[in-house]
Design brief:
By secondary structure, this protein is α/β, with parallel strands linked by helices. The chain contains eight helices and twelve strands. It is elongated.
Length: 225
């Protein structure tokens, strides 16, 4: 089993690497977030242990970017940031577990073993589809009815979130938190503006509308019955 440790503190990284090595794991270390992302995305590891606070690229951004490529590598976050909100952010960013520093190595090892016991997810889905609307997560492209649709990065993220929750009501607050990472006045019209632009691109000139406004609640991406 190959484990990638992304940790900028040499003493901590060495301590974990030594312990995991003694437990029979093949361990490699990346000292910053940028190098950690490159290696996690391009090499075959069975698990990654990622610090939250890293130079060049923080741990949350590292994992969010990794998940965006469709990589389903189990991730254990390590951090001195142990508040409830901090743990929630780590898990929502794509982490599978979260361990607060300082920690006992026996607990870290138990968590590593638990993550590696989880059944393989099988082939990772790299595309999303709702009716004739298709999204390729690797090429970051969108097509409807065979026609290519050009989206801005923020529009792509909104559509991806809507497609992952197809048939469900997605509120403005949910979009603000997951697309903008905002936690402020939900009365802002930034969501409505972007939704309007997105609707023009994916529904205009098509017989069936897919993006629906749910009055007083939010939006839903679905086929009409």
């Amino acid at each position: 089993m190959r484990v990638l440790i992304v940790e900028d503190d040499g003493e901590t990284a060495g301590y974990i690497a030594k312990g995991l090595g003694e437990a029979g794991y093949a361990v490699e270390v990346a000292a910053d977030g940028r190098d950690g992302l490159l290696r996690a995305a391009s090499e075959d590891f069975d698990l990654a242990i990622v610090d939250r606070m890293l130079p060049h690229l923080d741990g949350l951004s590292l994992v969010e970017t990794l998940r965006g490529t469709g990589k389903d590598l189990p991730v254990l976050f390590l951090s001195a940031m142990g508040g409830v909100d901090d743990r929630v952010k780590g898990l929502r960013a794509g982490g599978d577990d979260y361990l607060v520093k300082p920690f006992a190595f026996s607990e870290l090892l138990a968590r590593v073993e638990a993550l590696l016991r989880r059944p393989a997810a099988g082939q990772v889905d790299t595309s999303l589809r709702v009716a004739d609307l298709e999204m390729d997560l690797l090429s970051r492209s969108v097509r409807r009815g065979g026609r290519s649709i050009e989206l801005q990065p923020r529009e792509f993220k909104i559509l991806e979130y809507l497609m992952r929750h197809a048939g469900q009501v997605v509120t403005r607050t949910m979009l603000l938190e997951h697309v903008w990472n905002y936690h402020f006045d939900p009365q802002t019209n930034v969501v409505d503006v972007h939704i309007s632009r997105l609707r023009q691109k994916i529904d205009k000139d098509f017989e069936q509308s897919l993006l629906h406004t749910v009055r007083g609640a939010g939006y839903s991406l679905r086929e009409t019955s």
